[in-house]
Amino acid/amide ABC transporter substrate-binding protein (HAAT family)
Amino acid sequence: MRPIAALVSAAGLLSAALIVPASAQQTPLKIGVLSDFSSVYSDIGGQGNVEATRMAIDDFGGRMFGEPISMVSADVLNKPDVASTIARKWWETEGVDMIIDLPTSATALAVMELSKQYEKIMIVTDAASSDITGKSCSPYTAHWTYDTYANAHTVGSAIVKNGGDTWFFLTADYVFGHSVERDTSDVVKAAGGKVLGSVKHPLNTADFSSFLLQAQASKAKIIGLANGGGDTINAIKQAGEFGIVAGGQNLAAIVMFISDVHSLGLKLAQGLIITEAYYWDLNDKTRAFGKRFMERVKRMPTMNQAATYSATLHYLKAVQAAGTKDTKTVMAKMRELPVKDAFTDNGILREDGRMVHSMYLFQVKKPEESKGPWDYYKLLAEVPADQAFRPLKDGGCPLVK
């Protein structure tokens, strides 16, 4: 009997040795930042998003399951095929667990398809199309910062209420621009206004003269800029040269960032009504984060950069709470945990992938109102999440029952 007992005892010891904590079985965590480092959206995200991701990793403690957290980054050149090639390589051969940023809606939608194929998490912090959590939603994608629906409703409705009831759009000719024009047009019409027309321009346009002349000829009270980044900056600068505002028409920058205002200067940007999800001078938490970011990057964070910090930190907290990197388990934990950080203190991740939170309506200060660099905004209103973002039932996301 003794040999049998000894064998049973040995087998028990062997079984116990094989039962190890889930966290001990995990490979090191790796995050990939897919951004625009060289083109029209580099100021909005770019290297600032890389630094924001690094700040979140550092603030978390730098390690997960006893191993260092690592990060890689790449320039997508704002091309969906380039973004897909990099994402495939990262997920197939380089052990990347989560991809964040995605600078354009076209790149985001392309990588979302791969995310479904590989069942890997991606968090969109730069691209804006509301289709990301609408008809194209994915169980593995979170949309963090803002979207064309939220911006259209906060800015568009405010402008129409103040008499800007006829619109003409200058629209970037790809998914993002089309989404901005569509969503803002819906708001204008619902508020009793009229859309008199639109003109499409290529991404990264240097010369807006022909497009601005068409907008000027429309006699619309509001010229809606359905573009972003460098395109918005160039359009506003050239509109000033054409005397469009001096002639009685006004510009509506539907998607605009503090980096754009900084590039333009207050003399050109003053009076613009814009919406943002974050501003460094809102409260003590936003100011503390803004100061830390400024020390590293030498400029204040855009809402996308603050959101990239927030999304990375939330993801890391969810992985830790889940005790695993398993995609479905982590996504469930991300939806369960509230989002409270320097970006927002009232965020919730919905089942369609939309992270909802307050948005803010600002007016750009006059030069004489600013107390110094980056003191650019006057707060007009805080718009609660349920008013800013599209209702869950209206998005057409097939994940929503």
